[in-house]
């Protein structure tokens, strides 16, 4: 049976760098003046970020900066620099070890553009919400400027933008497959996923004067290597460059293994030697010396089927317990080089999570953003900070595996939880030190509200499993679904002196919640502020199967439990369900049926989220290729599964219009579509109709229409609690309301 790799060196086990003597800084310095006040003559590491610097554990630059500071390194911050020249990148001088570059808590393209490719006017991670403070493809631009400022200083790129672009990826904004961001940026190293483990090792090894070119054995990193590099000797290569030829494999470690929708591996599924052509029994080489060769960039950029195949293989190699290295070839004007991607980082243990979150964060924006009165209000207010100011992260990761979401791809599917004591300490510190705290904790959560301390019952089974989701199409029997630790934390937290109310703002995984009626009762009775957000995403099985989301029946079951618990508590509380328009696999009829369901249940969406193809997501591979990687990829038209892809402005607009069936501006488009679909029976002025047969003379001109057509009823106002979310217009996942790629929801921003 495959076992988890040997435990890595703990974050706290390194001998501190000599600069530890300076102690922690009130804020990591952003100017030479601050460095002088700290007694520093230089920085060991400079972090360049596309976000404003907020010293809080929900912001990547703060977590990485404070983690490195705890190792004894002097860390400076260059936040939202003017990228038009290299001058801003010289503000703190030459770093002794390396530049760390990140676009911020969001992919810069998702931060700057809507799903319709229209530029956003605001940026939640900038003072005053001002837009335009970071460039497109910020990681590329920042890296170039760092290299211009100091040519001999290594550059390490990370953050969610680098993480999701670590391999050849479909780029929605250019509608083409782009090279790995490591290739385009010409950085020295790329760190993906949660970066603490990798960045600490990189810093200590560079401090020991190891050349950056030698750092090729660190998990969670990617680097470039010459095809004739002798250091690549001794590796066993599995060829997966062709769709129907996955290479020599055994049952467990196939890079092209079918994703079966049953329980995870068990003891009976342990790898066994296999027989090839009766030539005898063979045993596969150790995983740590095995690399899977993906199709070259030049192949996947022009062949969508090969792209889908490469995406499938990549997602099968994401479990830290059994993942192998990946390699992809790039042609540089006739000179070939390989992109190597090492296996994912080993998840942090609970003591390591506590160490990271217990570091001396100031828990506020840098003083340079304050106004003359020292306040961070008005023009200096950072919207993302305001969203998470009084929230607490309790865990990382998600095993849901939703194909449109990047949380699992970035943070991993193994849940990394803090201890209860650590969470309580943070609440107490927030209560005692954070200005403006009124006794209301806005969230205890993470990527999801209720995966805290939930995971596989067996470490051995977990290490061998290759399923992309532990809860689809049903909950794996090997998954421990107990919510007892979370319930105990809730009770202890709300009993703290000075804490009046604890709300749960993270998205609830309701298919897990129904496994624990006690948790639902606890949540509904004490931790819902009138509304609770959940994400069924759709009602129809076609799109749900492409999303890897449970059927609407699970939502109905949770709704019954929610309403019963609310009634028992004597409270009027309401669910806010979120839905996605235009997701791959969604037909026009699917959207029509969803609209009918919305009207039947009295829901009116204020704003809706259209599917946003984020880099590297499985749903994005569906969008680009028209194939379903979950079912296997084949050039044989009789095998695999083709996917209906919603392309073109008109069809995407139609799918959005179905979600906003009540908007009079959408009625002409909907009437035309319903007639074309043979569903004119849904056009009329009765309660059972989806859209009226009349059209207001002007927007909102219902009375004018009624005067011309007395039979046209005035649309009823939505009943209390039956309006879907009132969006603020912030980017996806900033409010937690829009459904899209994991791009940096405050409180649970996409990590380093």
Summarize the structure in words.
It is built from 24 helices and 27 strands. The protein is of the alpha/beta class and 752 residues long. Among the domains are: 20-220, Rossmann fold (3-Layer(aba) Sandwich); 222-343, no CATH class. A hairpin with a 5-residue loop joins β11 (274-275) and β12 (281-282). α9 packs antiparallel against α21 (618-625) and α17 (517-526) packs across α19. The chain is globular. Residues 246-263, 265-280 and 699-752 have low confidence and may be disordered. [4Fe-4S] cluster binds at residues 398, 402, 405. Belongs to the UPF0313 family. Its cofactor is [4Fe-4S] cluster.
Give the terminus-to-terminus CA distance: 32 Å
Residues in helices, as a percent range: 25-40%
What profile does the largest beta sheet have? Answer: 10 strands, mixed
Given the helix and strand composition, which structural class is it?
alpha/beta
Count of DSSP H/I helices: 24
Cofactor: [4Fe-4S] cluster
Protein name: YgiQ family radical SAM protein
Biased composition (Low complexity): 731-752
Organism: Pelomonas caseinilytica
Give keywords.
3-stranded parallel beta sheet; single chain; 27 strands; alpha/beta; 752 residues; 10-stranded mixed beta sheet; Rossmann fold
Which helices and strands, and how do they pair?
Layout lengths: L31 H7 L6 E5 L4 E2 L4 H11 L4 E5 L18 E5 L5 H5 L25 H12 L5 E4 H6 L4 E3 L4 E3 L2 H5 L3 E3 L4 H12 L13 E6 L9 E4 L34 E2 L5 E2 L7 E4 L3 H4 L3 H13 L8 E8 L2 E7 L8 H8 L6 E2 L17 H6 L2 E3 L1 E2 L10 H5 L4 E2 L2 H14 L6 E2 L1 E3 L9 E2 L2 H6 L14 E2 L3 H11 L6 E2 L7 H4 L3 H10 L4 E7 L3 H7 L4 H17 L5 E8 L6 H13 L8 E2 L7 H8 L23 H11 L7 H10 L25 H7 L44
Parallel strand pairs: 1-3, 1-4, 4-5, 5-8, 10-13, 13-14, 17-21, 20-24, 25-26, 26-27
Antiparallel strand pairs: 2-16, 6-7, 8-9, 9-15, 11-12, 14-15, 18-19, 22-23
Helix pairs in contact: 2-7, 9-21, 13-15, 15-17, 17-19, 20-22
């Amino acid at each position: 049976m495959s076992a988890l790799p040997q435990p890595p060196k703990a974050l706290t086990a390194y001998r501190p760098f000599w600069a530890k003597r300076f102690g922690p800084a009130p804020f990591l310095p952003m100017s030479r003046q601050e460095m002088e006040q700290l007694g520093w003559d230089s920085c060991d590491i400079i972090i360049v970020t596309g976000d404003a610097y907020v010293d809080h554990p929900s912001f990547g630059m703060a977590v990485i900066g404070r983690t490195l500071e705890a190792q004894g390194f002097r860390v400076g911050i260059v936040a939202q620099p003017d990228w038009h020249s290299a001058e801003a990148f010289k503000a703190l001088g030459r770093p002794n070890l390396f530049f760390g570059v990140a676009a911020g808590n969001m992919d810069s393209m998702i931060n700057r553009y809507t799903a319709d490719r229209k530029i956003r006017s605001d940026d939640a991670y900038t003072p005053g919400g001002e837009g335009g403070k970071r460039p497109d493809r910020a990681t590329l631009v920042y890296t170039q400027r760092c290299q211009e400022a100091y040519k001999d200083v290594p550059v390490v790129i990370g953050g969610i933008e680098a993480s999701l672009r670590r391999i050849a990826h479909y780029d929605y904004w250019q509608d083409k497959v782009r090279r790995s961001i490591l290739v385009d940026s010409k950085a020295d190293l790329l760190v993906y996923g949660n970066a603490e483990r990798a960045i600490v090792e990189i810093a200590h090894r560079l401090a020991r004067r190891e050349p950056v070119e030698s750092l090729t054995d660190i998990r969670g990193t990617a680097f470039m290597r010459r095809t004739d590099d002798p250091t690549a000797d001794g590796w066993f290569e599995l060829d997966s460059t062709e769709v129907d030829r996955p290479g020599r494999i055994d049952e467990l470690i196939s890079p092209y293994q079918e994703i079966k929708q049953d329980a995870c591996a068990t003891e009976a599924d342990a790898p066994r030697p296999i027989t090839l052509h009766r030539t005898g029994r063979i045993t596969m080489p150790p995983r740590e010396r095995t690399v899977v060769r993906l199709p070259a960039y030049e192949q996947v950029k022009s062949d969508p089927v090969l792209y889908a195949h490469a995406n499938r293989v990549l997602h099968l190699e994401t479990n830290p317990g059994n993942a192998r290295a990946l390699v992809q070839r790039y042609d540089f004007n006739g000179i070939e080089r390989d992109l190597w991607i090492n296996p994912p980082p080993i998840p942090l243990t609970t003591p390591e999570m506590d160490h990271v979150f217990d570091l001396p964060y100031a828990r506020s924006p840098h003083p340079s953003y304050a106004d003359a009165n020292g306040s961070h209000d008005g023009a200096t207010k950072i919207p993302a900070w305001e969203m998470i100011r009084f929230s607490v992260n309790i865990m990382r990761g998600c095993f849901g595996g939703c194909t449109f979401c990047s949380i699992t791809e970035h943070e991993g599917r193994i849940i990394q939880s803090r201890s209860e004591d650590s969470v309580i300490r943070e609440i107490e510190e927030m209560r005692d030190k954070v200005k403006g705290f009124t006794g209301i904790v806005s969230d205890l959560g993470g990527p999801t509200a209720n995966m805290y301390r939930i995971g596989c019952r067996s470490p051995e089974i977990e290490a061998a499993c290759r399923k992309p989701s532990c809860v689809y199409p049903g909950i794996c029997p090997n998954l421990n679904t107990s919510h007892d630790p979370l319930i105990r934390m809730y009770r202890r937290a709300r009993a703290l002196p000075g804490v009046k109310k604890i709300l749960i703002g993270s998205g609830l995984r309701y298919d897990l919640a129904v496994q624990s009626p006690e948790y639902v009762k606890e949540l509904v009775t004490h931790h819902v502020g009138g509304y609770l957000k959940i994400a069924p995403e759709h009602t129809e099985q076609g799109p749900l199967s492409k999303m890897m989301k449970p059927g609407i029946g699970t939502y109905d079951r949770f709704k019954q439990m929610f309403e019963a618990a609310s009634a028992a508590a004597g409270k009027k509380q309401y669910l806010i369900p979120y839905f996605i328009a235009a997701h791959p696999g969604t037909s026009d009829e699917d959207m029509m049926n969803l609209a009918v369901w919305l009207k039947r249940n009295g829901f009116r969406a204020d704003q809706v989220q259209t599917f946003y193809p984020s880099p590297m997501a499985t749903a994005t591979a569906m969008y680009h290729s028209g194939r379903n990687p979950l079912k296997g990829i084949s050039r044989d038209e009789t095998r695999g599964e083709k996917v209906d892809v919603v392309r073109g402005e008109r069809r995407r607009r139609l799918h959005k219009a179905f979600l906003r069936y009540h908007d009079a501006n959408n009625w002409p488009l909907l009437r035309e579509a319903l007639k074309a679909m043979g569903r004119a029976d849904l056009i009329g002025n009765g309660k059972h109709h989806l859209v009226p047969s009349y059209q207001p003379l002007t927007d909102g001109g219902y009375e004018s229409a009624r005067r011309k057509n007395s039979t046209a009823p005035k649309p009823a106002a939505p009943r209390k609690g039956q309006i879907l979310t009132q969006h603020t217009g912030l980017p996806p996942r900033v409010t937690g309301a829009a459904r899209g790629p994991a791009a940096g929801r405050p409180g649970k921003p996409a990590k380093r």
